[in-house]
Amino acid sequence: MTENNTLSLSVYDRGLHYGDGLFETYAVQQIPLCWAWHGERLQAGCQRLGFPPPDLPQLYQQAIQVIPSTPRSVLKLLITRGVGGRGYRPPQPAHPQYIWLSYPYPDYPADYAQTGVTIRICETRLARQPQLAGLKHLNRLEQVLARQEWHETDIAEGLMLDTADNVIEGTMTNLFLVKGQTLHTPDLSHAGIAGIMRRAILTLAPQLGYTVVQGQYRITDCLNADEILLTNSIIGLWTVRQLNNRYYTVGTVSQTLRHHLRQQQWMINDAECPPT
Q1: Three-state SS at 180
Q2: In the annotation, is 227 catalytic?
Q3: Would residue 136 show up in a list of annotated catalytic residues for this protein?
Q4: 117-268, superfamily in CATH?
Q5: Is NAD one of the keywords (predicted)?
Q6: 63-83, pLDDT tens digit by residue?
Q7: Global pTM value
Q8: Where are the domains of the chain?
């Protein structure tokens, strides 16, 4: 980025032509939160796509230069394979391009966290592709199509199924279904993004005495759940108030998790995931 917030990028960049790249979205409160976990996912993605390993200390210094003076913000890192290759065949070696973007922290309604959100089921399905599952790659047309399905401002999110009718995630969130003292979350072996806050819940919940199960779930499992939780690194944790004609309460599991996420500073600073 330049001082005028402009970017020089080749029109032949493979990120533009093929979505050949990755991205990370960081919640920022003076520093990027959970830097190490983002870095691990970024390294895994680069390895999967055949990119050179990212220089995380150098990227951290770049990130610090982009962070605005506001108390909270959002950083986005785009990595493309760069220019080269013939058609789909990538160049060897790759010459990745790193692009940093800064955004204001989203101003979601306060009652989203306090009383829950209304969600819907999307018609658009996620393809099952184990080689890309879990990665934050630049191909997001499925999510774009899904998000075009509704315009009601009172609907905060849409759940997406894969082509085998398994519930996978929201358009921008990971999903947890609460039944008793057990948290169920979809297995992401064939589709979906392995989110940072999802990892936080998978780590924290057993410490609080909850059982966590990763498996395959259908819409009926969502409708029969005691609570539904949605997570990502920007929103933290939302509780679902309504799905179709099914209403839920903000239960003790979501309240307990949210309390401990804040107490242990998962959603405030990088105490649990230092930038090292």
Answers
A1: coil
A2: no
A3: yes
A4: D-amino Acid Aminotransferase, subunit A, domain 2 (3.20.10.10)
A5: no
A6: 999 999 988 999 999 999 999
A7: 0.91
A8: 14-104, 117-268
